[in-house]
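Worked example

This section walks through a single chain of length 152. The input is the sequence exactly as stored; nothing has been trimmed or padded.
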Amino acid sequence: MWNVRSVGCGHGLPGIFALLEGAAAVHFQDFNAEVLHCLTIPNLNANLSGKSQPSPSNSTFVTRQNAKHNQGAGYDFILMAETVYSINSLQNLYNLIKKCLRHPDGVVYMAAKKYYFGVGGGSRRFLSVVEKDGELILINAIIFMLEHYSGS
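Given that input, the structure is written out below as tokens.
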């Protein structure tokens, strides 16, 4: 069984999919508590209620305020989408990944644009933060994604 953290979870679809595919637990994290209460939790209940397994009780909801108290022993998978849009948050996001990822076998799946117009962040900027630190082996996967999937 594996543990998952969904960072910037929004509607929670990747985390819900992880639960349906056998994750022992998924911790849904979003910057805004309103997103968790108004989108994530109702969507989780709608997609998992009535199923024999899993149940929404295998989930934890993490906001910016309580994120430091939910690190645990490490996550096998960290899922994140559209989380690297702000230049100001890239280092904090990377620090969260380093702190939360199970070493040495944890994996991060990230979906993002190369560049977010108007705010300046993007996958290339995030890659530069990762390369500068040199601690995690995320670089090859990120470079592959950048070179082979050229979206905006």
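What to look for: Residues 127 and 138 are 8 Å apart (CA to CA).
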